[in-house]
Amino acid sequence: MSEKIKYLAINGSERRDGNNAKALEWATHYLESFDVELEVFQLADAVIDPCGACGDCNFRSIPCEQDDDAARAVRMMEQSDGVIFAAPVHGYGLAPRMAAFLERVGTGFLRHDRNLTNKVAGVIVTGRRMGHMAAYTQMQQCAMLNRMILTGYGFPAILFGDQKGEVLTDVEGMEMTRRMLDRMVSMTQLLKEYEKLTGKEPLPVREPGERHRETGDGRYHVPQKPDFSTLKKSKQ
Ligand SMILES: Cc1cc2nc3c(=O)[nH]c(=O)nc-3n(C[C@H](O)[C@H](O)[C@H](O)COP(=O)(O)O)c2cc1C
User: pLDDT for 73-105, tens place per residue?
Assistant: First the structure.
């Protein structure tokens, strides 16, 4: 990874120039003052379909084969030092583009090797009035499951606003966003410095993924699909 800190933001809004875009534009300028680069991946410009009906993610050991932009987004996250998940509230919860994104990259790719381990994560939610925390929690869980280091201090970066750009007038929300960005940068600097000074990987993890099981000789294997063929049919 290069010396210069690079973050990727996933904008889960339908609106390319909406509140999330405005908040991320602000974040881009703010991060520039620390010489940190922020690239925004707009889900509105990408094709990422929800999971299909195959349902074999728990048992397959190869990434999802759906031919869309999910794999590209995963590569971009892997090449960054940290990821900001930003999305609006839709229908009291997470907007559907972001929900589909988390589902696909999570089950189809990241679960295999947890390649986002120890990258810093930030979460931003915008909404007119209600449901921010439900959306926040969903993205937060994604960060934690992927062994990322979730940052922030004070209240979460939830922004109130409906019309395009309105969130920038939510003074307290923007202050929380600024603090979260400060914390992201400090944490990335800390991790990089540790690695440089000690030559050691910070926060090493033993298990490649939560589906891996120890074999007893220090190695891990992924359990194979269970064989249900011997189960007796239940009485009708
Ligand atoms: C289909 C739809 C559903 C929405 N549902 C909610 C909601 O449940 N709660 C809320 O506070 N805001 C809701 N909103 C408002 C958006 O969350 C708000 O305008 C947000 O700032 C939009 O961000 P964006 O401009 O980045 O898309 C909804 C907006 C749309 C278009």
Answer: 999 999 999 999 999 999 999 999 999 999 999
* 173 CA → ligand 1 middle, Å: 16
Q: Which domains does the chain have, with CATH numbers?
A: 6-221 (3.40.50.360)
H, E, C per residue of the chain = CCCCCEEEEEECCCCCCCHHHHHHHHHHHHHHCCCCEEEEEEHHHCCCCCCCCCCCCCCCCCCCCCCCCHHHHHHHHHCCCEEEEEEEEECCEECHHHHHHHHHHHHHHHHHHCCCCCCEEEEEEEECCCCHHHHHHHHHHHHHHCCCEECCCCCCEEEECCCCCHHHHCHHHHHHHHHHHHHHHHHHHHHHHHHHHHCCCCCCCCCCCCCCEECCCCCEECCCCCCCCCCCCCCC
For residue 166, the ligand 1 atom closest to its alpha carbon is: 21
Residue 100 alpha carbon to ligand 1 centre in Å:
17
pTM, to two decimals: 0.92
Measured by CA distance, the residue closest to atom 2 of ligand 1 is: 90
- Spell out which residues line ligand 1, taking CB within 6 angstroms: 13-15, 18-20, 88-92, 126-131, 161-162, 164, 167
pLDDT tens sequence across 185-198: 999 999 999 999 99
